[in-house]
Amino acid sequence: MKTFEYDILFFQVKKQKDYDAMRSALNERGAEGWEVITAEAGDYGYTTFLKRESLATKVASE
């Protein structure tokens, strides 16, 4: 059975360059196998929820 691990990231966004930093951070996480489940906009920025398959699951299936 697949298992997952989760992470939550917050990005303060005030200027256009903040979106570039957000994109860069999410691309780095994506390269590590993380996938954005959802992102929520708030008064001060965005909260993103990520998941990836647990490394223990991958090792057990090999």
Roughly how many Å apart are the termini? Answer: 13 Å
Can you tell me the overall shape?
A: elongated
Low-confidence stretches: none
Portion in beta strands: 35-45%
Radius of gyration: 14 Å
Mean pLDDT: 91
Q: What structural class results from the helix and strand content?
A: alpha+beta
Tally of contiguous helical segments: 2
State the major sheet. 3 strands, antiparallel
Helical coverage, percent range: 25-40%
Strand order of the largest sheet: 1-3-2
Number of strands: 3
Order of helices and strands: EHEEH
List the topology elements.
Layout lengths: L3 E9 L3 H16 L3 E7 L3 E9 L1 H7 L1
Antiparallel strand pairs: 1-3, 2-3
Question: Would you mind describing this structure in some detail?
Answer:
The protein is α+β, with helices and mostly antiparallel strands and 62 residues long. 37% of the residues lie in helices and 40% in strands. The protein has 2 helices and 3 strands; from the N terminus they run E-H-E-E-H. The protein has helices at residues 16-31, 55-61; strands at 4-12, 35-41, 45-53. Strands 1-3-2 form a 3-stranded antiparallel sheet. A hairpin with a 3-residue loop joins strand 2 and strand 3. The longest helix has 16 residues, at 16-31. The radius of gyration is 14 Å and the shape is elongated. The model has no long low-confidence stretch (mean pLDDT 91). This is DUF4177 domain-containing protein.
